[in-house]
Amino acid sequence: MMTMTAPIRILVVDDHPGFRAGLVAMVESSGEMKVVAEGGDCAQAIEAYKRHRPDITLMDLRLPDMSGVEGVMALRAHDPQCQVIVITTYDADEDIYRALQAGAKSYLLKEMTAEELRSAILAVARGETPLPAQVAQRLASRMSRPALTRRELDMVRLIVRGFSNKEIASEFGITEDTVKGHLKHLFVKLGVKDRTQAAIVALQQGIIHLWSASTDR
Amino acid sequence: MMTMTAPIRILVVDDHPGFRAGLVAMVESSGEMKVVAEGGDCAQAIEAYKRHRPDITLMDLRLPDMSGVEGVMALRAHDPQCQVIVITTYDADEDIYRALQAGAKSYLLKEMTAEELRSAILAVARGETPLPAQVAQRLASRMSRPALTRRELDMVRLIVRGFSNKEIASEFGITEDTVKGHLKHLFVKLGVKDRTQAAIVALQQGIIHLWSASTDR
DNA sequence: GCGGCGCTCCGCCGCGAGAATGATATCACA
DNA sequence: TGTGATATCATTCTCGCGGCGGAGCGCCGC
């Protein structure tokens, strides 16, 4: 049985040793919480979670082995009760949406202060889902935007990789006219006029990422 | 007169309080160096530099008020002898090139360990310019690439903002044919076939950034 | 059952984009 | 002085892109 005064036990997952050290310092500057384990990728995170059963997990979105969203889902698949707070530099609305969708309890930006971090951890420990004003605002803008269909996502992914309409068509085994139809809808939803702007907007909003669309990184 | 055993005095500039704390922890885990001041943007950095005259400045590339490259130039304009180490998540070759061009003595990625950081600081303090293998490799690939002219840079900037050839032409007061000519050269240099791919490649290589091309961020 | 939505396919049509080629002026540098 | 790089403007041509309208099919939910 956990008493009221027992410190909150925390797992930190980030591929930057420097930022991990910073998180540890911020967390442990107060006696009410302590870091019990650290990890640099999702595999280590799951391993550490099983061993230490932390009350709260702080997780970066961009990790070497898989995305933080996948990491959150993996942790929740293993323990649906786990409390994950995503901490990242990426404030694109789609990233926020997906992370919360995956089951994250909060979404913080790396610009946050130590006080903001600790108050968010305490709130999540109380069962709340605190969202900073800036993040909540971006999430709202995501909500008011029409969702892209699977096909439209396929389109924008290949557009960013430089595919022509014909190449996209043969990639999916459909007609070029069908591709044009999807693009038409895509442009309307993104509020753009051509494929180039569609690619840029998709990158800005976090719908796709350069590190997943390019050959390496 | 500084003696051999006096600690190296360091200024840390990063807009993330968490990462600043991590850098401080990593630096001060050894007695041979200490952080004498911190800053969250370039203005604070220059202010702190004038007051504390640090031996070495650790600077992030992305800052709220101006880019880290501008920050390096500003510091060196004030004191050409200043020793700046850029520390960033961005490993695009153009970023590396510009930072070193601006006078940075080293370029480290945030994935580095505490040991790598400290050895780089010691090396710079000795007058060397240490570059991690990964960074050196990307810098080399940048070197083997033809440099873009000023006009070609103008082109790619407006392409990323969704301008058509006609709009680009009127923006600069030149003919659409001239724009086409520049684009032709640009495509060859970037190794692409159309404006969409040019935009993507320019973003990947760090020639331009979404946060400087879009309306906000 | 029926409407709505997503996916598919079809036509027509205008325009912008890019390829090919050539010419001229300027400037830096050898 | 000549050579190369840069920037400018021009002509012609082809083709991919995107606009516009229509239409059939399957799935899901009310």
Task: Explain the overall architecture.
The structure is a homodimer of 217-residue chains. By secondary structure, chain A is an alpha/beta fold. In chain A, 53% of the residues lie in helices and 12% in strands. Chain A contains eleven helices and five strands, in the order E-H-E-H-E-H-E-H-E-H-H-H-H-H-H-H. Chain A has a five-stranded parallel beta sheet with strand order 2-1-3-4-5, sandwiched between helices. In chain A, strand 1, helix 1 and strand 2 form a beta-alpha-beta unit. The longest helix of chain A has 15 residues. Chain A is elongated, with a radius of gyration of 20 Å. The mean pLDDT of chain A is 92. At the A-B interface, helix 1 and helix 10 of A face helix 1 and helix 10 of B. The structure holds a DNA duplex (30 and 30 nucleotides).
What is this structure, in a nutshell?
Chain A has 217 residues and is α/β, with parallel strands linked by helices. Chain A is 53% helix and 12% strand.
Structural features:
alpha/beta; DNA-binding; 217 residues; 5-stranded parallel β-sheet; 53% helix; homodimer
**Class by SSE composition of chain A:** alpha/beta
Strand percentage of chain A: 5-15%
Contiguous low-pLDDT stretches of chain A (5 residues minimum) are none
What's the story with the biggest beta sheet of chain A?
Answer: 5 strands, parallel
Total helical elements of chain A: 11
User: What is the approximate shape of chain A?
Assistant: elongated
Counting DSSP E segments of at least 2 residues, the number of strands of chain A comes to 5
Oligomer: homodimer
Largest interface in this structure? A-B, 39 and 39 residues
Strands in their spatial order, largest beta sheet of chain A: 2-1-3-4-5
Rg calc of chain A = 20 Å
How would you spell out the order of helices and strands of chain A? EHEHEHEHEHHHHHHH
Q: What's the pLDDT, averaged over the residues of chain A?
A: 92
What distance lies between the first and last C-alpha atoms of chain A, to the nearest angstrom? Answer: 45 Å
- Percent of residues in helices of chain A comes to 40-55%
